[in-house]
Amino acid sequence: MVSLNELVTFLDEQLAIAAIPDYPGALNGLQLANEGPVGRIVAAVDASLAVVEAAAAGGPGLLLVHHGMFWQGAQPLRGAFYRKIKMAMDAGLAIYSAHLPLDVHPQWGNNPLLAQAMGMREVTPFLDWKGLAIGLRGVWNGTRDELREQLMQAVGGPVQMCAGGPEKIASVGLVTGGAGSEVARVAAAGVDAFISGEGPHWSFPLAEELGLNVLLAGHYATETFGVKALATELSQRFALPWSFVDRPTGL
Q: Read out DSSP for 32-66?
């Protein structure tokens, strides 16, 4: 058993929670405390009611998520939101969320882990947002069909592709999650292909006009890497068992 405060201090420091900018609804850090020590870690992409229900079934612990409970902003404690909070509190389940701080972390981040799975080389920071590089770019040699096939293997699922750029790929930009709307900035950066999770409909015609290959592998599927890696780290460092609640959104 480990105190919640010890785990939160470690996570806050290692993920630089206070220093990394994010969207207001992310509310990174500890979102819900519990009253006792932590005896297990549960990882998931989203802090949805279904995920909390599955995590709470195992009793007290820490639920570690990428998307927390407050993306809609302030809301009254009623309905499904009330049931979710009450269920977690009754079970002694604390909830910790890390969005962009986890995306960009060099060791446990969604971006570097997916780039590694893709075999990207000479990887450097990519695509600035409020002074933060929210993605990576690197060297990757092959055809766009081969890139798509490798991406499908990396995420274990389907990949939508806009074949708007060159057939032969030498450079790739990568931002996990929902960065498909950034196709104009990505094309301006001069990469041959762009990998993300999801994007708006208009992003595919625009990418085609800009001469950019775009591959979308799913918002959920591209962001399972980080919480699993971070839960593994906590498990090894603090001798705690961990599990993953797989609740795909289909997006």
A: E--SS-B--EEEEEE--HHHHHHHHTT-SEEEEEE
Class of the domain covering 110-222: alpha beta
CATH number at 4-99:
3.40.1390.30
- pLDDT above 90: percentage of residues in the chain: 100
How many angstroms from the chain centroid is the CA of residue 99? 7
**161 membership: H or E segment, kind and range:** strand 160-163
Instruction: Give the model's pLDDT for residue 36.
Output: 83
Decide: helix, strand or coil at residue 98: coil
Cα–Cα distance measured from residue 132 to residue 42, given in angstroms and rounded to the nearest whole number: 28
Structure-block tokens of residue 56: 């709470």
Give the residue extent of every domain in the chain.
Answer: 4-99, 110-222
Rounded Cα–Cα distance for residues 10 and 191 (Å):
36
Q: Are 163 and 169 in contact (CB under 8 A)?
A: no
Distance CA 224, CA 247 (A): 10
* Per-residue pLDDT reduced to its tens digit, 191-202: 999 999 999 999
94: left (phi over 0), alpha (psi -120 to 50) or beta: beta
Q: Which of 148, 136, 139, 155 is nearest to 214 (CA)?
A: 148
Q: For all residues of the chain together, what is the average pLDDT? A: 98
